[in-house]
Every structure is written in C-alpha cells, then in structure tokens.
Design goal:
Helices cover about 30% and strands about 25% of the residues. By secondary structure, it is of the alpha+beta class. The relative contact order is 0.20. The structure holds flavin-adenine dinucleotide.
C-alpha cells in the first residue's frame, strides 16, 4: 500500500528541509526522502564545519542566473533576518566573520539539528537511504517508487541540489526529473571552484604552493577582492572561488597583486628612495617573498630599481596590477561548492516555485538555475526558495 501524504519532498538538504518544515507548520502531511545515509551532508561540511548559514547583505545582485529577476520575490519574502530569528530561537551562537557572513560559533551540526527539530515539531517524516527509481504523475497526483516503497502525494518538491561533490550525495536526478516533465535544463558547470593551471604558469607556480596573498581578481567586468592561495594544482582562495563562477576557458583573467595600491607610484618612490636595492628585495616587502622572487625570475626586471627605465617601470606596474593568469580549467564538481546552470527558471513561478508545465511539481534550491556568490548566499537561496514553496504546497 503506498504511503500517502500531501507533500513529498525529494532531497533532505537545506532547501528540502526548509520547505518541509514550512509546509508541516501549515498542517500539511509531509514526507522527505533522501538517497543518502544522512540528511544535510553539505550543511555539515559547509563553512569548514561551522556553516556560513546566511549573509546579512544578501541582495538579488549576489546571484547568477539566466533570469536575474527570478530570485527577487523569494529573497524579499524570506530574508536573512528570518533565518537568524530561527537560529537565535534555537540558542545557536554565531558570529560575523567578514562582509556580512554569519557562521556558527560551534558547529554546523547545530543547523542540521535545528532543521530536524523543526521538522519533527511540525510532524514531518524524514527518511534516509531512500533512493527514487520512478516518478509518475496521474490525475490524482504523483506516484513515486523508492527503495522504501511507493509514495503518493498531491505535491512533489524537487530539492535534490546540484552536481557538486558527488561523494556528499549530489546527483543529476533533479535535472533528469525536470526533463522528464518537459522542463529545460540550462548547461551546468562547476562554480566556486579552484582553477587549474597548465604549461608555463603551472611550471612556474607549482613549487610556490602555500603562498597566500590579498588580490583583486578580474574577469568579464566583474572583480572580487579577497585572498588567493597557490596550491599544487593551481590557485584557490576566496577571490579565486568567486571569480571562477564568472570565468570560462579562454576568458581573460587578471590578478591585481597589489590591490588598493598604486604600483607605478610605489615603484617610482622605490627608485627615488631605495635606488640601489634589487627589485626582488623591495617587492618582497609588499608581496610574499616566494612569489616576489618567482615574479622577478620570469616576468619582472631582476635588477636594482634605479636601473629600471620608465617604460619598464610602467610595464612592471601594469603586470603587478593586472597579472594575466592563464587558467586551464577548474577542478570540476569534485571540489566545487556549487553548480551553475540547472532547471530553467523561465517555466517556474518565482512566487510559488511551481512548474508552469506540471501543476503540483515544485523545484527549490540549487537544482534551479540560480547560483549565489561565496559567502552564505547559497544557503540563503535554499532557505528562501524552500520557504516560498513550503507556504503553498
Ligand atoms: P543540497 O543541500 O545539496 O541537498 C540536496 C539533497 O538531495 C542531498 O541531501 C542529496 O543527498 C539529495 N539527493 C540528491 N540526489 C538525490 C536522489 N536521486 N534521490 C534522493 N535524494 C537525492 N553555501 C553557503 O551558503 N555557505 C557555505 O558555507 C557553504 N559551504 C559549502 C561547502 C561545501 C563543501 C559545499 C559543497 C557547498 C557549500 N555551500 C555553501 C553551498 C550549499 O551547500 C548549497 O548551495 C546548498 O546546500 C544547496 O541546497 P539544496 O538543498 O538545494 O541542495
């Protein structure tokens, strides 16, 4: 005999649990199923185990989508302050790290516990180890065949997330289901992901792994200022993760290694005041020494600064403030925090998250073509979209 409910949510991650608890609070009979052996694995892993659960500065401008207006309604109706209210009600201590990013003081486990407690209080049933084998729609709703039997529900919510980090339960299931019901899925690619180098840049930076510095990364008219880290595979760190969502192979990527400074003016001052010093010496005072040495070996004039003529000085300053890094690709879904692209939002209601093609079918969270910047925006999208759907299913 099928398990009957009002709402079946597939995916017990951030968006699915938020949708479920919101619908449960309205008195709906809700079942949540997940194929993984644990709920909220990405929440647990997030923010280095402390979950950057929101960003107090969230605006629609912090999201990438082929349809930039789509996210506005839900974000306006469920703000970071709504989520913070729940966090405080559950006594979870948190702090702001930088730029409005809120993290748990103790552990991201507290966020999963909070969501599960809210689900339980709202009578929501959550099942793990429950993979889905078939989804059909009849005149009386959705019939879903799973590892734990048949489910029958009037509303079906797809909250299965994106493709990032398959080892945490990510799958393309949501995209396949969307296609099954006639939805378009926009091409997906890894976002918020380290970039890889090849050729000369790989050879020249390979042995500098561990070097970290503040930079501004620029690509396609977008710029992010934060730190960068050289790794043995390429480059990472917040500034690079941010720009990775805007970069595609072949795009021009520039790194300002002296952000907020006037490299030309600084070099002239060095020429005037420290003319006998080698460039590598003075550069090591403003950049990590291992990086300064490598730059002087291959790209900059390796001599006393007084011997650097005006054209060379301008060239050196331009290189320091717009280093043309040739990335060969990204590390891919294995290490990406998010998936760009996904279910085309143009056939989904931005207020109810219901499919405009199939009544009763909803998509929430990262499975949709809405991707946030680094810094708590992706969870805020999961909460806001889950909440919006939870109010109507
Ligand atoms: P998910 O949270 O991924 O949940 C999807 C759920 O669906 C999973 O439980 C999965 O097991 C289940 N599922 C998948 N396929 C199936 C299937 N076939 N059948 C049944 N169930 C299925 N964002 C932030 O805002 N702040 C952070 O600090 C942050 N840190 C991150 C760190 C890491 C390492 C990663 C990978 C991501 C991080 N993110 C962060 C991004 C954030 O985790 C996601 O954007 C967010 O979890 C998306 O929520 P979701 O509910 O849509 O999907």
């Amino acid at each position: 005999k099928p398990i009957a409910c009002d709402v079946l949510v597939i995916g017990a991650g951030a968006a699915g649990l938020m949708c479920a608890l919101t619908a449960g609070q309205r008195g709906r009979m809700v079942q949540v199923i997940d194929h993984a052996n644990k709920v909220g694995k990405k929440i647990l892993m997030s923010g280095g185990g402390r979950c950057n659960f929101t960003n107090t500065g969230t605006t629609p401008a912090n999201f990438l989508s082929a349809n930039p207006h789509f996210c506005k309604s839900a974000l306006a109706r469920y703000t970071p302050w709504h989520f913070i209210e729940m966090v405080e009600r559950h006594g979870i201590a948190y702090h702001e790290k930088e730029l409005g990013q809120l993290f748990c003081d103790i552990s991201s486990k507290q966020i999963v516990r909070m969501l599960m407690d809210e689900c339980q209080a709202a009578g929501v049933q959550v099942r793990t180890d429950c993979g889905v084998t078939k989804v059909e729609r009849g005149s009386d709703g959705f019939h879903v065949t799973t590892a734990q039997g048949q489910f029958h529900a009037a509303s079906l919510v797809v909250a299965t997330g994106g493709l990032s980090i398959p080892s945490l339960g990510a799958s393309g299931f949501g995209y396949e289901l969307a296609r099954q019901f006639g939805h378009e899925v926009l091409p997906t690619r890894a976002g918020l992901v380290p970039l890889t180098l090849s050729g000369k840049h790989q050879e020249r930076f390979n042995d500098r792994s561990g070097v970290a510095l503040p930079i501004t990364a620029r690509c396609n008219d977008v710029a992010f200022s934060n730190s960068m880290l050289i790794t043995h595979r390429g480059i990472s760190g917040p500034a690079i993760l941010q720009i990775s969502s805007f970069w595609q192979p072949g795009d021009d990527l520039r790194l300002d290694l002296l952000p907020g400074q006037d490299a030309e003016g600084w070099l002239r001052a060095m020429k005037r005041d420290r003319g006998a010093a080698e460039l590598r010496t003075v550069l090591s005072e403003v950049l990590p020494r291992r990086l300064a040495l490598r730059l002087c070996e291959h790209w900059l004039p390796d001599r006393p600064v007084k011997q650097i003529d005006e054209p060379q000085l301008r060239e050196a300053a331009a290189l320091l403030q717009g280093f043309p890094l040739v990335a060969s690709g990204t590390e891919g879904y294995r290490t990406a925090e998010v998936t760009l692209g996904g279910v085309d939002t143009r056939k989904v209601s931005s207020s109810t998250f219901e499919s405009q093609l199939v009544p009763g079918l909803h998509f929430v969270g990262e499975v949709l073509d809405v991707t946030g910047w680094l810094g708590g925006y992706n969870f805020q999208w999961a909460w806001a979209s889950g909440h919006a759907a939870g109010q109507v299913v």
